[in-house]
Design brief:
Blueprint (H helix, E strand, L loop, with lengths): L3 H5 L2 E2 L5 E2 L8 E2 L2 H16 L3 H4 L5 H13 L6 E3 L3 H14 L6 E5 L4 H14 L4 E5 L12 E7 L11 H10 L3 E5 L18 E4 L14 E4 L43 H13 L5 H22 L4 E2 L11 E5 L3 H10 L2 E2 L1 E3 L3 E5 L7 H16 L16
Parallel strand pairs: 2-13, 5-6, 5-7, 7-8, 8-9
Antiparallel strand pairs: 1-3, 4-10, 9-10, 11-12, 12-15, 14-15
Helix pairs in contact: 2-8, 4-8, 5-6, 9-11
Amino acid sequence: MTDFTATKRMFHLPEGMTYLDGNSLGPLPLATPQRVGQTLQDEWAEMVITGWNRAEWIHQPARLGDRIGRLIGAPEGTCVVGDTLSIKVFQALAAALALRPDRKVVLSDTGNFPSDLYIAQGLLGALGQDLELRVVAPEEVADHITDEIAVLMLTEVDYRTGRKHDMAALTAKAHGAGAITVWDLAHSAGALPVDVTGAKADFAVGCTYKFLNGGPGAPAFIFVAPQHAMQARPILAGWLGHAAPFAFEAAYRPADGIARMRVGTPPIIQMAALEAALNIWDHVDMNDLRTRSIELSERFIHAVTQACPDLTLASPTDPAQRGSQVSFHFHEGYAAMQAVIARGIIGDFRAPDIMRFGITPLYLDEADIDHAAAQIAEVINSKEWDRPEFKVRAAVT
């Protein structure tokens, strides 16, 4: 049984702040500064370049990949960490397309994160060959999986609304039509139980700075199903994905398995921060996390909808169909969110009109939920949001 009171004590939570934005950036684990300091002082400072061997920096991407793999149902040796999520989406989509060279269509949905769609547009445009990105409404995806589709590329949990796709069912339908699947777990990993093996996903990618609390700029991960590991073609043929990086051969030979999905030099300091964050997950049962997330989400939805008739729930009412976030439509959503933030309740805004709140049981409890709901109600019902300073758009919303 997970002790969420204990996990809350593992984070630095600023005084006077109720943090409901872990779906954008997780807060600082208390152990992170010491772990990063160790990398700076004991490893980089004292070992310098010998840290690649003595501190085993070179093996960190695989080691952390296996730790994330345990959270997403991936077998050992099928997940690796490094680079950014955009690069990992690019790699996975390119490798998936190469497995279906006779097909021309990548299917995605309007709930996918725009960056994933931009990556697909850029890749397909560069490859030519009359490739097409077909984007449909989330609820229409299943109806558009046909034998035209080369790759089904989806984000499991919609970044705006929190709507959750059925990974297993859609993957099964895609496979039945002969397509390959690429799943983005940016809003899933660390938010709810994920089983890429049980769902038979072909590729999966995700970031580590949201629910996994790895810090701003924390590296991404990629999973490749075992049956594709030796066939997946890494379009970014990076030095550290070579079969023998220190042989310095002129021609590229891909490493065996998931190691071929490594590209550039891993971000060692960021990986140290991520390692400290992952230690928290050794104390967490994902099913307990999911149960607690639903309890807190339902409490939040009930409190806000009862007190704020001007807000409309944008997330699914059925908790089984949601990730670990709750979103509301409001015609002045940006200004309202700024007013809420000014009261110490941290959520965020997503265009065109969504107020979004991450429900993260590792460091939120009933008192936090109740306090946040009460503050939101005061802002909305008093029209506190209708002040000029709250309508000035910042660079990051």
